[in-house]
Specification:
With 153 residues, the chain is α/β, with parallel strands linked by helices. It contains 6 helices and 4 strands, in the order H-H-E-H-E-E-H-H-H-E. The chain has a single domain, classed as Diaminopimelate Epimerase, Chain A, domain 1 (Roll). The longest helix has 19 residues.
């Protein structure tokens, strides 16, 4: 589903027609050339979330963004594990302590709020740094290179 008007998307979230995750992705990508995706899993035999996030990242061609600035947030809802993977354009700029802080905050949010809301908060936090590192400009427009839909398996 593609909705250009964010106010319309907010109404759809309130009506239960669209995920708050998708709205957070759309809002976060509005001011950056970077791409954010979320993958949710129900797999019971998923022992290594970092290995899984990398596999999903490359299977979905996320490394093909123009600026190599895509992020994938993977959450296994059954195992209560997650991982974040940033492409080389982001990883070389963002220091490990930033990733650690996002992980810490998401871990807390997942304990105390509905998983969709916790993920939406994390997406917005990612978006706030991405708009600083990869801003939209006349020389660098904002094509939506990847779908905002949540990946599920």
């Amino acid at each position: 589903m593609v909705v250009e008007d964010l106010a319309e998307e907010e109404e759809q979230v309130e009506a239960g027609k669209i995920s708050p995750i998708i709205l957070a992705i759309a809002e976060s990508e509005k001011e950056t050339t970077a791409e954010i995706r979320v993958a949710l899993s129900q797999r019971r035999f998923d022992s290594d979330p970092l290995k899984r996030v990398k596999k999903i990242f490359y299977q979905n061609g996320m490394q093909n963004t123009k600026n190599r600035n895509a992020i994938l947030l993977y959450i296994n809802l059954k195992k209560h594990k997650f991982a974040i993977f940033g492409d080389e354009g982001i990883h070389h700029i963002v220091k490990q302590n930033y990733w650690d802080e996002i992980v810490k905050e998401l871990s807390q949010d997942l304990k105390y709020t509905h998983y969709e809301n916790a993920i939406a908060i994390a997406v917005r936090k990612l978006g706030s740094i991405l708009k600083t590192l990869f801003p939209v400009s006349l020389d660098n427009p904002n094509p939506d290179e990847l779908s905002n839909e949540v990946l599920r398996d």
